[in-house]
Structures are given as structure tokens and as C-alpha cells.
Amino acid sequence: MEPVIDQAFAAALYARDDTGLDTGASLLAAAPAADDDVHVRGEEFVRRAWTRGWQPADVVRIVRRELDESAVALAAALITAETARYPHLPPRWAGQLAALPAPAPRNRPDRFSYASALLGLYRLLLGLPSIEPVGPAPGTAADRLHQAPVHGESRMLTRIRALLAKAEGTGFPEEAEALTTKAQELMARHSIDEALLAARTHSDETPGACRIGVDAPYETAKAILLDAVATANRCQAVWNSEAGFSTVVGFEPDLEAVELLFTSLLVQGTSAMTKAEAGQRAGGRKRTKAFRQSFLMAYAQRLGSRLASDTARVTAAADAGGAADDIAGGAEHAAPGSLLPVLAARDVAVTDAAERMFPKTTTTRVRGATDIDGWTHGTAAADRARMGGSGPGIDR
User: Fold this and answer.
1) What is the Cα–Cα distance from 119 to 132, expressed in whole angstroms?
2) Which one of 20, 164, 165, 340 is at 20 to 30 Å from 78 when CA atoms are compared?
3) Is the pTM of this model over 0.70?
4) Would you say residue 310 has pLDDT above 50?
């Protein structure tokens, strides 16, 4: 069956228009015996993506962005089959695989439509560029050498998650605001405890990285929010606008905090913006894209200030010998004046790691807010924001 597959692929994958897709799909639809080999080829294309720095969540994100949900289900089937061949997978992959949608059944709704969609997916996979890796590809020597130890979530992160769930469920703004502050204090204290422990034990831990989706619409505001969250938690974020994600560089406990907090604040931003728009419509004013953009820009800027202030306050108290028990259970204690050099060394390590990964970065001009009501409501929403829950990003 390989000649048929080669003909179909030659027609579909390297053509400049979609006419080739129809030709290739017709060839594959007429050759049921080639089905298994066609899917094996697809797994090879997924494997190439791993060697180019992509991970499962990245592939799903770009397929959803460039194609549609049916193509995402096709990609999920290929990813599931390809990753099943490895005895172990790199850190973070288990969570990404668990989040995959249900794999698409073969040859639905009919053989031609299925083959056409599959070839469209293959064309996209073949064209994926190389991106900065945030960990070794599965099955490589580097992967075997860099396997993270298997362990459960720390008690501190479990406590933070419980706090966030409580914050998410409250209907009282004052309680929610108090929970916001407490949650960021816990995250900041957790970061300090990990830094002190690493310094005390002369740990050889180095900064790592993860990628977090930054999807349209209003991706600029979302990227600014993610950067603010990353900075407040001693990480650095680099936005790839074309691929729809930011790469966050930092030590593992801080990366976990960034993922948790960013997702929660996006969810809250969605809810707050929806309520603000409803109130404006009730007052007879039609809301616009400018309102939503201004809302989210203000929301990101104000939250950045809040998070940075919370982190600075906790750090100053810890460096002065403040009672860790009051904030995070006292996992580690710093002698007065001894903390800042430890944190400075970790900051330098994160900066060096980010510069090695991204030796060439550019800045982008951010369009200013143009809707005063949107800015006012966004600022107020940031002041009320608490952390917690998970869910889709802002998609209105």
C-alpha cells in the first residue's frame, strides 16, 4: 500500500492549494488496507514535532488555532498512540496527556471526509517550525538523564489549592479579597521556603521552563497579565505571539504557582468582564471590543501591582526575621538579612536561563486603552479579584 500512500501524500501535503487534499483524500478513501500505515505515518509526524521542541499541549493548541476541534480530536488520537510507546515520559507530559480530548474514531463521518481532515492535519504538522525546547523529547538520552523524581504535590500547594477553591466559592467580595491576599502570601512564602531549603542543602536544582497558552482574543492583555504573574513569582515570561503561548522560566515551585494563579485570574477576568458588560447594556450603552480590551489591560496592570506588592511585603518580613508560622507554617526560617542574597542568586539563575533559551527577544508596542469605562471596570475587577478554580480563558 505504500505507493498509494506516497501518491496521496505527494498530492496533498506539498501542494499549495486544497485541490491536492481532495486528490489525496480520494486515493486514501479508496484504499482501506492502507489505513494502519497512514496512521503510522501520522505518528511519525507527531514524533518530529517532539524533536522540534513541541509538547502535546502545544500541538493541540496550534491545531485548534489553525484548524478546528475535529482536527484536535484527530491530533489527540495520534498523540495518544505515539506516546504509548515510551516506558516513561518527560515531566509535565502526564498532565498534558490527561487533558487531551477524546480521540476521534476512524473514518467518521465517511472515509473521504476523514482522510481529507487527516491530510490537512498532517500538512500542518509537517510545517511546524522548531521552537525553544522546555525539556527533553521522550525516548532520548536527555530524557532518561533528566527524569524528575516522582512525588506527590507538596502540602503547601495542597493548602493553596484548597484556599483557592474556597475563594472561588465565596459570594462576599471582602472575603474574596482577603483570600486573594492570603493565597499570594502563601505562594510567596512557599517560594522563599524552597529557596532557603535549596541554599541550606546546597541543591543542584536549576531553573526549568513551561509553556502556557495565550490565546486570542485580547492576547496582548493576557500576555501582560501572565508576565505580571510570572514576575511576582520570581519567573520570567517570553511571549510567542505567532504560536499562541508564553514560555515561563523559573524554578519548579514558582512555575507551579504561575500556572495556578494565571489560570484562576483569567477565569475571574472573564466573569468580571461579563458582569460589567451586562451592567453597561442595562444602562443603555452598547459595549465594544474597545471596552473589553481596555478592561483587560487595566485588569492586568492593576493585578500586576497587587501581586508585586504582596510578594515584596512577604519577602521584607521574612528577611527581617518575621514569623514564618504566621504565613506558611514555618517550613524554613531565615536569619535576619540572610534571605535577599539567596533570592538574588536565584533571580540571576533564572535570568541566565532565560537568556540562554532566548538570546534574541524583541519588545512590542502595546496599544493604549481607549475606553475609560472599560479601564475603570477592569481596575475595579482587579481590586476584587481572588484566586481559584480553572477553566477556559476569556473568549467573549
Assistant:
1) 26
2) 20
3) yes
4) yes
